[in-house]
């Protein structure tokens, strides 16, 4: 077979792989954006909508009632009836906003260090003092970039208690012994780091 023909086949294959990588990247980005909308933005918007409805209801009652003492007392009683719901919605909206901000920060941190990241958020753990949310982060990238990502987690505005870290790689070299100590050495190729942690919210 002619060498020029073979070279064209190789070049065509490379182009296909390049376009496949672009398509994979776009699909992944769409999935991440959709997940953020479904799990964070939509509940946040729903809570704001409910809060606005309650506030509008109170305003309508204030406008429609007469200025006599009896009507005023009814309005006050109705306000007190809705006040716990409004306070609870305020807390929910504030918490959702902080969670969304936290997820965005983690995504930006992964982008800064050129890491692929998957975020799994568990169910809230009941606590009298704090809101505790389990968190699992799966990161893919170079060992150095993963380490820098981990170091930057320590300066986040939310307290993150790292409970376990697992690192796996097909490119791990044999342990290098120094006296009695031995420590695996990782190449610059891709590794996967899984972080299991808990986040604490007030």
Overview of this protein structure:
Keywords: Membrane, Transmembrane, Transmembrane helix. This is Pilus assembly protein PilO. Pfam families: PilO (PF04350). There is one protein chain. This protein has 202 residues and is of the alpha+beta class. It folds into two domains: 1-98; 113-202, Ribosomal protein S6/Translation elongation factor EF1B (Alpha-Beta Plaits), CATH 3.30.70. 58% of the residues lie in helices and 22% in strands. It is built from three helices and six strands; from the N terminus they run ααββαββββ. The chain has helices spanning 3-64, 69-112, 143-153, and strands at residues 116-121, 131-141, 159-168, 176-178, 181-183, 191-201. The strands form two sheets. The protein has a four-stranded antiparallel sheet with strand order 1-2-6-3. Strands 4-5 form a two-stranded antiparallel sheet. α1 (3-64) runs antiparallel to α2 (69-112). Mean pLDDT is 73; it is low at 173-183.
SSE arrangement:
Layout: H1 3-64, H2 69-112, E1 116-121, E2 131-141, H3 143-153, E3 159-168, E4 176-178, E5 181-183, E6 191-201
Antiparallel strand pairs: 1-2, 2-6, 3-6, 4-5
* Average residue pLDDT: 73
Whole-number tally of structural domains: 2
Distance separating the two termini = 70 Å
Order of helices and strands: HHEEHEEEE
Using only C-alpha atoms, the radius of gyration works out to: 27 Å
Strand order, main sheet: write it out.
1-2-6-3
Largest sheet: 4 strands, antiparallel
Helix content: 55-70%
Number of helices: 3
| Anisotropy-based shape | elongated
Question: Would you report the number of β strands?
Answer: 6
Proportion of beta-strand residues? 15-25%
Structural class: alpha+beta
Low-confidence stretches: 173-183
């Amino acid at each position: 077979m002619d060498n020029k023909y073979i070279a064209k086949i190789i070049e065509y294959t490379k182009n296909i792989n390049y376009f496949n990588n672009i398509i994979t990247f776009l699909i992944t980005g769409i999935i991440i954006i959709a997940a953020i909308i479904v799990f964070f933005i939509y509940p946040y918007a729903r809570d704001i909508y409910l809060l606005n409805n309650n506030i509008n209801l109170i305003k309508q009652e204030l406008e429609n009632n007469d200025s006599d003492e009896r009507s005023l007392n009814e309005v006050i009683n109705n306000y007190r009836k809705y006040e716990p719901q409004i306070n609870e919605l305020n807390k929910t909206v504030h918490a959702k906003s902080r969670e969304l901000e936290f997820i965005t920060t983690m995504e930006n941190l992964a982008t800064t260090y050129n890491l692929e990241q998957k975020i799994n958020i568990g169910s809230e753990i009941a606590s009298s003092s704090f809101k505790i949310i389990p968190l699992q982060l799966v990161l893919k990238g170079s060992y150095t970039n993963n380490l820098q990502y981990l170091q930057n987690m320590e300066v986040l505005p939310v307290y993150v208690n790292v409970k376990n870290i697992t690192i796996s790689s097909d490119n791990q070299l044999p342990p290098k012994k120094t006296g009695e100590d031995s420590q695996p050495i990782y190449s610059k190729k891709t590794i996967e780091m899984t972080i299991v942690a808990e986040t604490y919210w007030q």
